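Hi support team,

I'm filing this because I wasn't sure whether my run with alpha-D-ribofuranose finished correctly. The job status page said complete, but I'd like someone to confirm that the output block is well-formed before I use it downstream. Pasting the exact inputs I used:
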Amino acid sequence: MKVLNIGSLNIDKTYSVRRFVRPKETIKATKYEEHCGGKGLNQTIALKRAGAKVYHAGMVGKDGQILLDLLRQFGVCTDYIKMIEGTSGHAAIQIDENGENNIIISGGANDHISKEYILSVLEDFEENDILLLQNEITNVNFAIEKAKEKGMVVIFNPSPMNEEVYTYSLQKVDYFLVNEVEAAMLAKMDFLEPEDTIETLKGKFPNAGFVMTMGDRGAWFFQKDILLFHESYRIPVVDTTGAGDTFCGFFIAGLAEGLDWNIILERSSAAAAIAVSRAGAAQSVPCKEEVNTFLEKV
Ligand code: RIB
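And here is everything the job wrote out:
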């Protein structure tokens, strides 16, 4: 089973700060770094490091060679990625002293994913292959619909969550990967106890599977009669950027491999814990062997 990720590729401009900047305030960063990122790229690298057969499609600008190089360094097939005029997507990320982040993204080349491009990439994939999407590129809904017409398994991480998501053909999504805030928004509820969000989402999307991550408070998987929870592993936090993407990548790799849900949750939680103990997004993702070693020790 092949996994196709049509996803964002960003240059992450990361500012370490004592605390997040407030309105009308100017503060000085204690450190500035540039990393490869984008929810799409991070999830592809996590898939690859977890052992999945993954293909990344997307667009970069003329400054995007660094993104292609990183993917190739990890052994990801980049044949579908197009380099276009203009700049790549980027993210401005503040990391505070607790490793917490806030992120602003600017679309750049990610905003040039056309319907024609999506159709041309999908030609090489077939029934039961997986299509993974996040919400950082254009024409997401078109990709959902066309992949479903081919009988592909559609996995959607509606991040960043916005009003447009409600207009998508969400009933065609097979699996949603959400954090608790995105879950509540998808359920169109104020933030409530996880159990309430879960019940509402099961009612709205009775056939879909859901992964709901809650940072250091664990992660849920639910689908029809299945309801599973896994605690987060405690590990000193350096940078939470990309931890959710790491979880997603390992989760999908486990799904593609046909592993037991409990094992998938355990591995994904361990991979995300290792990722938060390291700086950066894509380069903080551990490989499968590191995850196994970690699990032997806890
Ligand atoms: O999920 C983390 C990612 O969100 C960052 O790498 C940034 O590029 C944004 O897409």
